Amino acid sequence: MPIDRDEVARKLAQIPVEEHLVVRRTAIAAGITRHLVTAMLKEGRLHRSLTRFKPALTAQKKHMRVEHVLSYIDDESHEFESMENVVHIDEKWFNQDTNKRTFMLLDEELPPQRNRKSKNFIRRPCFSLPYDFHRKCRWNGKIGIWALTKEHVTQRSSQYRPKGTICTRNIESIDREVYKRF
């Protein structure tokens, strides 16, 4: 007895799009078999769609970016400055969300919009490392690598730790004040 594909499509349409990431997860969320999800992909009733983060920059922010770049142009020679007197800060981020996500969507479904004002607002731990490109350390010697996290005392106990244990959390937004503290 063949299974009605329209009924399967209705079940798939009822679950949130965020559950349409992989075949197994989609099948479990819809309460159908993986074979049906795979068959619908092969038949073309279900298709894969790739989404990426899109910057939600305002016109003011775009203007500020251009002004920042233009501030490094020498007024006399009209060339970019050599920037040999600048200490660069290298960052290593461990993302808790990915830039690319593939969703399996029905024909009438649209991929979800994934806008971010900036990638700084994605939850992720950050490690900061200041360095001098020319290896001429001319500042106060504060060189090293730091995890940009904060410590907090747990308020409840769990199966992994008792109440009152000191744990670390990511700092939500890394800005100028956070860099000054570290």
Show the helix and strand layout.
Elements: H1 5-14, H2 23-30, H3 34-43, E1 46-52, E2 54-55, H4 59-70, E3 88-93, E4 100-106, E5 115-116, E6 126-131, E7 146-147, E8 149-153, E9 166-170, H5 176-181
Parallel strand pairs: 2-5
Antiparallel strand pairs: 1-4, 3-6, 6-7, 8-9
GO molecular function: nucleic acid binding
InterPro entries: RNaseH_sf (IPR036397)
Protein name: Transposase Tc1-like domain-containing protein
What would your notes on this structure say?
It comes from Phytophthora nicotianae P1976. This is Transposase Tc1-like domain-containing protein. InterPro entries: RNaseH_sf (IPR036397). With 182 residues, the protein is of the alpha+beta class. It has one domain. 25% of the residues lie in helices and 23% in strands. The chain contains five helices and nine strands; from the N terminus they run H-H-H-E-E-H-E-E-E-E-E-E-E-H. Strands 3-6-7 form a three-stranded antiparallel β-sheet, with no helix packed on it. Strands 1-4 form a two-stranded antiparallel sheet. The longest helix is centred in the middle third of the chain and has 12 residues. The chain is flat. It starts with a helix and ends with a helix. The model has no long low-confidence stretch (mean pLDDT 78).
